[in-house]
Here is the input.
Amino acid sequence: MNEKQTYSKDVVVELKNGLHLSPSVQIVQTAQGFRAKLAIHKGDRVVDGKSMLDLMTLAAEHGTRLRLEATGDDAQAALDAIGALFDRNFVIDGVSADRVLVD
Amino acid sequence: MEIRRGIAVSPGVAIGPALVFGSEGFRIPQKLVAVDIVESEIHRFHGALAASVKEIGLHEELASARLGKQYGAIFAAHRQLAQDPKLSGEIELLIRENFYTPEYASSKVLRQHARTLQGLGDRYFAERANDLFDLEKRILRHLLGERREELTQLTSPVIVLAHNLTPSETANLDKQFVLGFSTEVGGKSSHTAILAGALGLPAVVGVGSFLSDVSGGDTIIIDGHDGLVIIDPDEDTLQRYKVAQFRQSSTAIRLKSLGPLKAETRDGVEVKLFGNIEFPSEVEHCVQCGAAGIGLYRTEFLYLEGGLEPTEEQHYEAYTRVLRNFPGCPVVIRTLDLGAEKFPQSMQQVIEASPNPTLGLRSLRLTLQNLPMFKKQLRAILRAAAVGDVRVMFPLVSTLLELRQAKWILADVGEDLQEEGIEHNPRLKVGMMVEVPSAAILAEEFSREVDFFSIGTNDLIQYTLAVDRANPAVSHLYSSADPSVCRLIRLVVSAAARQNVSVSVCGQMSSDPLFTALLVGMGLRELSVSPNAILEVKQAIRSMTIGQAKEIASRSEMFDVARDLESYLRGELSKFSPELVD
Here is the structure.
């Protein structure tokens, strides 16, 4: 497998309050489980998907289109895992991340 | 020159350079560091960061377990943030390249990001800035907290100025270098205040916000008599206080020579002087002053220190430490005397707070309703009583039924120990505090069921006059010289004498030489006083005859107003021991 292989995927933030703390934690924790680098593009801005500081200051609101870009030997798996978070809209244990941390 | 008024809690004058500790508002003490300590400062920063991460981890576990994973996620986010190498990298860079202190660098970086979030326009994201401020506070607390440990590693004399000092911080003050201290918060009966008295450090607490007006190194005068903190005094003031300080130290030297001497009147009547302590480490001071034992060992610090209920072994260890330091002398251990509201947050779930704390669930009432906690302490006391002359004392007894219940539980605990084959002394002496007027009025009845009384004047005055002396609007009503209080004391002393029960006075009244003749004249032969007052009270005892004392006590009965009695006593004291009159 090519170590420099890059995979990418476009996602849309469906969360009512945007990519806030709880979903950001899920992204960071998931991304840290892979060796691959994860870049998240929002327009011209690129942030590190493993950095909580970056994700917090990215301020991706509801409806924002993001491009996920994974690079490295387990890039495809990393991308699938992160993509899955967006697909199920960050629901954990049947509770939407939107339900909490809203206030 | 600026003069701030606070509450005087420990007398004396101290003059020296200020050492300012960050307040809860985290005033950052210094912006730049010296080039040669940059690496050690970076190391300090990482230490504080690691401590913050660990602390957040604990909150995370707790929140997840109690409220659910989604709530734990708040802390997970904070933890991720604290662990983000990007963040620590930015802070480290400022320390290394700009020679910023870790405090300043952390604050700068986090605030910068917070501002970015606030500037986004979206209300939700703007609020996330609070998460960054929260982390900033946490890191600063760990950085400044670490700095506080330097209190034990001082190299030159200072006056410590802080928003607050915990009892353990106060206890750890290095007396060689700490000349005195002042805090923004705190009251007369706070544990920090009591401890300052014990250490003999001039102290003023409850000054209100003043730290921002002081820079480290400013000359400070602590006037522990009038409760003043003087910042950057002018030459006249400084001279005046230097004279006072000189006088104070020559009196102290003279008093010191009294240490090995007995506390007896000129005509040879002995008054046993005991020490009131809070911490085992205070015993040494009492020994030096020639105390006959510990008349009041307050055990609250055991509960307040760790924020968790102490184990039986922790109790036992503290008690036997006191016994080891004071071999062969009696030690009166008072069971927990705390109000529900004073309990650390972490223990609040076992205690139900009450809306009227001084009249509510506190002290013995509280322990009688929390038996496992009470029994743990009683077990340790009974065990310690096998090692030395330990006596147990119940605080805030208001009715005979309460006393009987407490004694019954004590016996029960003794039986348990017996069955378990654990060494203990079931025959230890059992006493009570007389600090509720009902107990003083029924002293006759109570005296049949205890081995000793100790009159706790602080609470007795508060409950007799219905006055909270921490409340400046009514504190003028609070006086040890109030005739009602004196009459209650007489009642207790004569009841005790009839039953041949020993009686002492603890509380601040007994520590004030102004009242020594009165108390001795009323018939008291045991006084338990704060360690720093032992020598003064001894001096007062040694300068009077028993006849004088009786005369003073009998004349005192004629006064119907506290103020008049107080000035009479002052006049008498100035006759036989003028140097003790302030």
